[in-house]
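Support request, please re-run this one:
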Amino acid sequence: MTKVLPRILLPLTVFAAGRHSNTISVFAINPETGKLTFQRKSSINLPSPMCILLTE
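Re-run finished. Output below.
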């Protein structure tokens, strides 16, 4: 299963694969402090994600 996310998210975003929760969670990066903020309603449910590959 492939999910496509808007390209605008990529420079200031971290994606975290949760192998045991079967989700990919999205965090915004504050460019000034580097602080990560969990983005509610942006988690993606996938069966056993192990790795995230970003391509153009």
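The chain has a mean pLDDT of 78. Strands lie at 13-18, 23-29, 36-38, 44-45.
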